[in-house]
Every structure is written in structure tokens, then in C-alpha cells.
């Protein structure tokens, strides 16, 4: 079965030309399903079978300066949208706001990729981690049909640090999320590279990866989506 590999480009690259060159370098057909999530300013100019946004607002229209609505994303043929990333939570995004975003994305048939794992530490055991995730997911998924939602487990201490979680730990967390919240797909993210991706993808309950830095290097990302 194909895995879902999501490329989060974050605030990269700095020019449209480089963004288009990067997208053109990623395989259109591979063993797994690839989703590219470029900065919003590039979404209309990038051609790729599966496009994702890095965030959205929960209102369709109105006086919301600087925001991006799900209707605008839909018009650009965006299929996926990341919500709740730790870098958004760090600047004050709340679980209540994430819940609003999930609701409106699902209403407009855009698949949310819900990130959880903010507030975890490398010292915590599996039980302590699930306590943190429960506090997030109970609010994030309140009143939401969770079945279409993709959850990405991203322990915050692993993001951009070069220190990834153990695959066996990520597998246990994926099982917890699926069993408790009726989630069908769970991804792992956090210092994913072409060298360690296979260790996560071979886990039975990990359905894909959310890739940061390695998604900016076509050689590495093409290797990951072809595993």
C-alpha cells in the first residue's frame, strides 16, 4: 500500500524560479504518494499532482488581513493543508483555533494534516507523551469526523534538530492515536532523512512521513518517496 509523503518547504525557497525548479525536480510517479507544501505565494504557480498548503484561516472571506481562506486554497486545487504545526503553536496558535481550521477544511473537502507533538520532550516515556497528545487531540478533534483527518506525530524536540524519535516509539504513538481517535492515517515527522525514512515506513501503523529539510533536496526527497 502506498504511503503518504508530505514535503513541508516552510519558508523556502526565496524565489519563484527556485520553487518551480524544485517542484519540477520531484518525481510525478513514485512508489509512494508525494504532496508538496510550498509557501502560499507559490501555490498558484507550481504544477504538481498533489499540492498542499502550510496553513489556512477558518473563515471563507472577510476583513482578515494576511489570512488565506479554504475557498482560496480550493480554487488553487490544493488537496491537503497542514494545521497545528509546532512552529504555528509556538507563536500562539491554540487548539481551539486548530479545531476551527479542521472543521472548515473538511467542509471544503481539503484533507487536513494535523500536527501534534508540541510540548513533548525527549525525556518523556510513551505514557507521558500520550498524555500530552491527548490534551491536544481532545480539543483539536472536538465535533470533527476524524476519519478523513491525517495526523502527523512530530515531537517538537526532533524538528530541525537532527535527532529523530525511535521508529518503535513512533509506532506505539501511531497505534494510540488510531485506536483512540478513529484516525486512519498517522505520519511521522521530525528530522526525517533519506537515511532513516525506511525505518519509519516499515512500521505497520506509520502511514507516511512529514518531511522538512530533506524535502528541499530533490535527490533525497525522490529517494524517500521511492522507498
Keywords:
33% helix; alpha/beta; 227 residues
Low-confidence stretches: none
The CATH architecture is Alpha-Beta Barrel
CATH topology: TIM Barrel
Instruction: List the helices and strands in order.
Output: EHEEHEHHEHEHEHEH
Report the total helices. 8
Q: What is the residue-averaged pLDDT?
A: 97
Helix content: 25-40%
The first-level CATH class name: Alpha Beta
Main sheet: which strands, in order across? Answer: 2-1-8-7-6-5-4-3
**Rg over CA atoms:** 16 Å
Question: Could you say which structural class the secondary elements and strand pairing correspond to?
Answer: alpha/beta
**Main beta sheet strand tally, sense and closure:** 8 strands, parallel
Give the strand content. Answer: 15-25%
Shape: globular
**What is the CATH superfamily classification?**
Aldolase class I
- Give the termini separation: 12 Å
Secondary structure tally: strands: 8
Overall number of domains: 1
What does this structure look like?
By secondary structure, the protein is an alpha/beta fold. The chain has a single domain, classed as Alpha-Beta Barrel (TIM Barrel). It is 33% helix and 15% strand. It is built from 8 helices and 8 strands. An 8-stranded parallel beta sheet has the order 2-1-8-7-6-5-4-3. β5, α5 and β6 form a beta-alpha-beta unit. The longest helix is centred in the middle third of the chain and has 15 residues. The chain starts with a strand and ends with a helix. The mean pLDDT is 97.
Amino acid at each position: 500500500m502506498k504511503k503518504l509523503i508530505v514535503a513541508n518547504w516552510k519558508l523556502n525557497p526565496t524565489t519563484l524560479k527556485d520553487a518551480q525548479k524544485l517542484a519540477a525536480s520531484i518525481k510525478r510517479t513514485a512508489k509512494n504518494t508525494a504532496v508538496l507544501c510550498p509557501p502560499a505565494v507559490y501555490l498558484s504557480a507550481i504544477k504538481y499532482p498533489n499540492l498542499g498548503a502550510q496553513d489556512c484561516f477558518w473563515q471563507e472571506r472577510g476583513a482578515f488581513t494576511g489570512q488565506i481562506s479554504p475557498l482560496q486554497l480550493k480554487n488553487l486545487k490544493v488537496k491537503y493543508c497542514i494545521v497545528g504545526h509546532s512552529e504555528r503553536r509556538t507563536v500562539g496558535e491554540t487548539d481551539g483555533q486548530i479545531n476551527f481550521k479542521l472543521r472548515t477544511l473538511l467542509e471544503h473537502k481539503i484533507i487536513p494534516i494535523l500536527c501534534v507533538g508540541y510540548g513533548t520532550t525527549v525525556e518523556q516515556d510513551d505514557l507521558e507523551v500520550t498524555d500530552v497528545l491527548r490534551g491536544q487531540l481532545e480539543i483539536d478533534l472536538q465535533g470533527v469526523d476524524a476519519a478523513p483527518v491525517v495526523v502527523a506525530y512530530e515531537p517538537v524536540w526532533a524538528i530541525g534538530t537532527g535527532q529523530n524519535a525511535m521508529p518503535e516509539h513512533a509506532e506505539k504513538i501511531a497505534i494510540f492515536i488510531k485506536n483512540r481517535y478513529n484516525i486512519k492515517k498517522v505520519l511521522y515527522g521530525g528530522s526525517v532523512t533519506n537515511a532513516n525514512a525506511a525505518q519509519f515506513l516499515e512500521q505497520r501503523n506509520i502511514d507516511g512521513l512529514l518531511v522538512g529539510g530533506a524535502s528541499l533536496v530533490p535527490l533525497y526527497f525522490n529517494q524517500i518517496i521511492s522507498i
